[in-house]
Amino acid sequence: MGWSKDGPGGRKSYHHGNLREALIRAALHLIGEKGPAGFTFADAARAAGVSSAAPYRHFRDRDALMADIAKRGFELFRDALQKAWNGGEPNPYVAFEALGRAYLAFARNEPAHYSAMFEAGIALDSAPGLQQAADEAFAVLRSAAEALSAHMPKDSRPPAMMMSLHIWALAHGIASLFARGDPGRRKLPMPAEDLLEAAILVYLRGLGITGGR
Prior knowledge:
Arc Repressor Mutant, subunit A, mainly alpha, 2 domains, 213 residues, two-stranded antiparallel sheet, Tetracycline Repressor, domain 2
């Protein structure tokens, strides 16, 4: 695959090689510039330096291109969360803090993927593998919730699914509002990581899980 800067403004153009990857790179760049709804299929082709008909060799339409980007995003997200969780080592509380930081870091470092995953309006059942990739990422949060709730008496444990959904909502809300790596981020008087840590601590203490700091 070859890229070069040519034309007004040094626009990157695609010359040869893997067309599919060129279109994905171009779309990621456009998402970063204009948001997930701010460009057309033809715009992505133009940004990749190919004809408006060329993308149809790999994608049936713009939604299929966005679904592919979202799927790749969920796979990267899953890997980042799994690495941070580290099987709950050295203990679930420390690992859970690392998991929260990884969630915020992904929103900050991969804003285009994050937007495609959560803001493009792509149905998870619209493309092969997309639902599975999203489920695998969520499964890391569920594993963490199960490990934390294991420290509670069995008769008072909340359902692991409910707990993981609560934690996901907290992490996602803070990531989307305060940690994203694009102009949509709101300002905070403290690091977003500190806000998430405090929110999770309050939530866990409300459940009676007090083994952490």
